[in-house]
Structure formats: structure tokens, C-alpha cells
Amino acid sequence: xxxxxxxxxxxxxxxxxxxxxxxxxxxxxxxxxxxxxxxxxxxxxxxxxxxxxxxxxxxxxxxxxxxxxxxxxxxxxxxxxxxxxxxxxxxxxxxxxxxxxxxxxxxxxxxxxxxxxxxxxxxxxxxxxxxxxxxxxxxxxxxxxxxxxxxxxxxxxxxxxxxxxxxxxxxxxxxxxxxxxxxxxxxxxxxxxxxxxxxxxxxxxxxxxxxxxxxxxxxxxxxxxxxxxxxxxxxxxxxxxxxxxxxxxxxxxxxxxxxxxxxxxxxxxxxxxxxxxxxxxxxxxxxxxxxxxxxxxxxxxxxxxxxxxxxxxxxxxxxxxxxxxxxxxxxxxxxxxxxxxxxxxxxxxxxxxxxxxxxxxxxxxxxxxxxxxxxxxxxxxxxxxxxxxxxxxxxxxxxxxxxxxxxxxxxxxxxxxxxxxxxxxxxxxxxxxxxxxxxxxxxxxxxxxxxxxxxxxxxxxxxxxxxxxxxxxxxxxxxxxxxxxxxxxxxxxxxxxxxxxxxxxxxxxxxxxxxxxxxxxxxxxxxxxxxxxxxxxxx
Amino acid sequence: xxxxxxxxxxxxxxxxxxxxxxxxxxxxxxxxxxxxxxxxxxxxxxxxxxxxxxxxxxxxxxxxxxxxxxxxxxxxxxxxxxxxxxxxxxxxxxxxxxxxxxxxxxxxxxxxxxxxxxxxxxxxxxxxxxxxxxxxxxxxxxxxxxxxxxxxxxxxxxxxxxxxxxxxxxxxxxxxxxxxxxxxxxxxxxxxxxxxxxxxxxxxxxxxxxxxxxxxxxxxxxxxxxxxxxxxxxx
Lengths: 539, 235
Prior knowledge:
The complex is a heterodimer.
Chain A: H1 4-34, H2 37-42, H3 47-80, H4 87-99, H5 102-113, H6 118-125, H7 137-161, H8 165-173, H9 178-206, H10 210-215, H11 224-233, H12 238-260, H13 284-314, H14 317-322, H15 324-360, H16 366-381, H17 387-398, H18 404-446, H19 450-479, H20 482-485, H21 495-504, H22 508-538
Chain B: E1 5-14, E2 17-25, E3 30-34, H1 41-49, E4 56-61, E5 64-65, E6 76-79, H2 91-99, H3 107-119, H4 135-149, E7 153-157, H5 165-182, E8 185-189, H6 193-199, E9 202-207, E10 210-216, H7 217-222, H8 227-233
Parallel strand pairs in B: 3-8, 3-9, 6-7, 7-8
Antiparallel strand pairs in B: 1-2, 1-4, 4-5, 9-10
Helix pairs in contact in B: 2-3, 2-4, 3-4, 4-5
């Protein structure tokens, strides 16, 4: 249906982006390999790396277990109480931690659970001697649960709400007690999605960088990613960093393979508010239980978030906003974010149009099909090589060519682009697919192509998903500390890096204020992107 | 006969399905195409329109070999069952795109768009968006676009299937009127034996990727020696 030229162009774009990404990742990995590989291989399994590997997996496993087990009663309670006051806002609140820069979440958690936080003050008052520590393993677990419990709860809720309405009617007409409803309806529904959810959370926790950097650190509580960073930044011990990087790639590969065996965790539209009526759980006991579960979860989320706001308000926001350090960091962050955002969109569209061109062939050969599969998998294969590893490789690569800080902004933008790619593809690919299904035959038969097609047919429809994707990629880049951590210096300061360095130099007040500003910026970007979606549904 | 649609030994393999079509569709007539689901009706339509290219054989329209041509280079207008209009563009633009894919319209073109809209009973609807129209009005707009395109062949893939029965009748009448005015060659896919008798001069019956019968409409509707056709006609 595409003209020959359109098809060749699409495939050309795809080849170009594939080559580009492969080169970028490949050069980083090759730089790691070629750097004194002999000594690095000897360092692969030392007592040190072994301990870090153990801790990485142990904290990820515990975080996953806690997040999923605690999320289940919350999701069940929300599913059972469609009329719970403010339910829609609680569900929206649960989407918030995902859009929040991790560093800012960490600051909020310190505000609540830290030594001077309200939890520990309360505990002291009622006579508990040993305060909860926000640092070390307990802090890392707390923070991982803060970020992942809402994610798990939303996905589980979606799975529960996907059950046919007749199930609930039937269960109540059969007189099922809550335990039976759980056993025959809720648990089977949750069990199907749980492996996927757990895999996703395990992946996020095993590769978690910022939280461990801020709350962990020290040899007893360090993950691979942070250990790589520390070996380069503080000890400048590249062989150790390389050994750790290979362990990291091995682990992510194993997790990715594990995840691919299970069905995808997806909340596609299910929360959009189909009204289900539930007749079970009308007893006082279940009522109290559900209310408690929802309230505790809400408090757990809302306290750190409000701590960010209150602590931030205490800072002198105006003088922070007008300070040269802030303005310079904001400018750097925005240029990097815009570059990363636009790059992500361009690469995604290139991949999509190449796959479209191949799908359009009547009988694509083995090469074409393999290429299409490769393009489809590429966006997630990028997850295989974590940002810190990419940064490490390129750090070693460009060091001989002079000042690293000169290349750093572009490198950070490209790494951010790779991080955003899988998510942006998930937004754009179905949108383009639907659009194509609706208009391809019509456009072809009328001979609309080239600029005219782009301007009249494609852009008006795809503008919204493109905006969503762009704002998402930009928010991700704006809030990211992982890619910039290796390169951050007085020459290259992004907003998260500024917050982090203020925090490390104990200028907490400034850090709180800056965190609030950054949080608001990221939130506004996300809202801008999703507001378009909601309007589109009405129109 | 030379200026009709001529398919010679057209073969195509899609997945495990094999199609083989040989037929001549006379110019200036309405030919109905029927057959069970999955028999190959839409595939035949796609071959003529250019959305599929044949593995072998040739397709001629008005004597011109179009087998390798892009859909936009074939002298054809199309009406699908659904999604005939770009939902984000108003009717004027939608129909204008039928004249010029880059919307370069002369004053005469603009006048002809308004006239076409009027002809299908949608006079003054230029600025309306497709979403504000009923299903019947959307199909009328597709007819209007076919009018301004002035192509000798009109292919329709179950154009009335989504409409209720009363509307189908009036749309069929409109189609016949337009056909008489323009003298175009119409090929229409339909599931409805009534539509065959109402509209068609000729009819094709397709089953398992082959044309089992091509006949005058009257004869077609009276045939009882092909079990699959009998089953189709008895509903």
C-alpha cells in the first residue's frame, strides 16, 4: 500500500537508527572490554563483588515481596469499594510516584522517616527507643516500597476490574463469603498478573541507582549500579567498575529473560472507570479492614509528598529561583531534556516506520522479518545495558580526547533518550498503528503522500500522542540523576545534580526548595502530556 | 468489453490461502460480488484496487494493464464499509482531497465539491465534521467524493452493511441514480441477496478463492445447482 519510495525510506530510517543505537551501546561496551580486560576479569568474583551482588539481589527480592504483598490488600479494597470517598483521587495519587523524580521522592521520605521526621518523633513519644533508620537496608526497602507499591496496586486493581461484572453478581447470588470470593475470583485474577508485576518491580529495584545512592552507600548497602559509580567517581578503579558492569549486564539479561516468560503487566485503560457493582464485603469487619488498608496506603504516599511541599515552602523559593546556580542548571537541564525528548521521538518514529514498511511487504523474507523483530526488541534491549554502564563506557572512551565535560551534555541526552525509548515506543506505536489502520487504504487510493500526508492526515491525529511522548521523555530526562551522576561537575550541573550536591553539602534547606521546584516542573510536564489525551477522548 | 475490468489468470497466495481469479466485468454495469465469509471477495477487491499485488497474471482496466500500479494510479474510486472519511477533517476537505491529494483546488473544483454534496443530499454540509454525521450521511459523503473524482470504476466493499434496512434502500436508489448519470463501472461486495436483485446487472459468486459463477443477475438468482450458492441465496 506504501509506494516503493515510502517503503525504502522507512526501512532506511530503521537501519539508520538501529546502526546508531548499536554503535552507541557497542562503543560503550567495547570501551569497557578494551580497557585492561585482563585485570578486570580477575576482579569479576572477588569477595567484594560477591557481597555487592548478593546485596543487590537481596534488597530487590525483599522490595518486590513487600511491594506486591502490601499492594494486594490495597488493590482488593479499592476494587471492592467502588464508592469509597475520593477513590479516583487515591488512584491518581498512586500514579504520582511514577512521574516524580526519584531523588525528590527520596527527600520526601527523609522528611517523614528521617531522624527528625514525624514518624520517629512519634515513636520516641510513645517510648520506642530504637528509631526507624531511613539509611541502609531499611531505608532502601522503604523507598522502593514507596515507589513500587502504588505501581503494583494499580496493576492489580486493573486486573481485578477486568473481571466480568457477572462474576461479582454471581458470587453474591451464590452467597460466597469474602474468603471464597478471594479464593475463587480475586486470587486467580491477581495470580495471573503477579509474576509480570513482580518481574517488573524486581527489575526496577535491582537497577535502582538514585535511591541507593542517597539512602544506602557504604559497603554494607550498595547495589551494583552505585558500586560502579563509586569505583569510578571516588576510587577511580576502572577494572573494578568494568567487572561490576559485566555482572550488572548479566543480571539484567537474566531478569529480562525471566520477565519475557510471563505475561505483560499492563493497565491499559482498565482504570478508566467502568462502573462495577460489588455486593460482597458488606459486613462491618471487611468494611473496617478495607478502610484501614486504603487509608494507610494513602497516608504512606501522601505524607512524604506533602513533606516535599512543606519543606520546599520553607526555603526561600524566590531567591533560589533567581540564583545564577539555579538558572544555569535549569538551562542545562532543559537543553538536555529537549534534545533527549526530540531524539527519542525521532528514533521511535524511525523504528515504527521501518516496521510498518516491512509489515506492508506481502511476503517479507527472513531477513526483513528478523530485522523487524530486532527493531521491536531493540527498545527493550536498551534496558540491558544500564545508564551507569553506558556512562562508564563512554567516560573511558572520551577521556583521552580531552575534557569529558565537553561531550557530557550530548552523552547524557543520548543516554536519557535510550532510557525513555521503551516507554515512548509504548505510547507511539499503538497510536500510529491505529491511525494507519484507519487511514492507510484511503490515503493510498487518493494518492495522498509526502508533505501533504504528513501535514493534513498524520500530524493532526498524532500530535497528541507525540506531545504525550515528548513530555514524558522530557520529564524523565529532567528528573534523572543516573546518567548525569558520572559526568556531573561544576561544568555540567543539571537540576537533579544541583539538588544532590546541595544535599551532600548539607544545605538541606536549599535542596528542599530546589526539589519542590523540580517536582512541580516534572509534574506540570506530565500533566501537559496527559491533559491532551483526556481532551482527545471527548473530541 | 475492452474498457471493463479484466482479470487474467490472477494468482495470489496469502498465508495458506490461495486465490485464482479469471473474469471480465463489463463496462458501465453494476456487478455484485457475493460469497461466504473468507471466500476471497475482499481480496479480489483489494487486487483490483491495488492494495494487494498479484503473484502472477494481469489486471486490466479499460484496456490498460494496472497490475503493478500503485492504488493512486488506478482509475478507481472506493467506498468502504467504514472509515471512508478522515475524522479530523471537515467534509469539504475530505472531498477536496479526492480531487487533489495536496488540496490544490481551482474555483471550479470548489464549486464541484459543493455541487456534489448537494447531489447526494448534503447541500451546505461543507464545514461539518464526520463525527457529527449519521452513518448514512457519512456514506453519502463518500459517494460525493466518488462523484468529484470522475473515475470510470467504483469499487464498494459492503458499503451499506452498517446501515439499517430502510436506509439501505434509499442509498441503493441513490447509487443507481448516480450510476446512470455517470455511466461508471460499479463493483459492489454484498452479503445481501436482496441487494443483488435490487442493484446488479451481473453477479459473481466466489468460494474458496475461486469464482464459481458469473452470470446475469436474473439467472444468478435462479440458479440452484451450486450448493454453496443455494445456501447463500436462502440466507
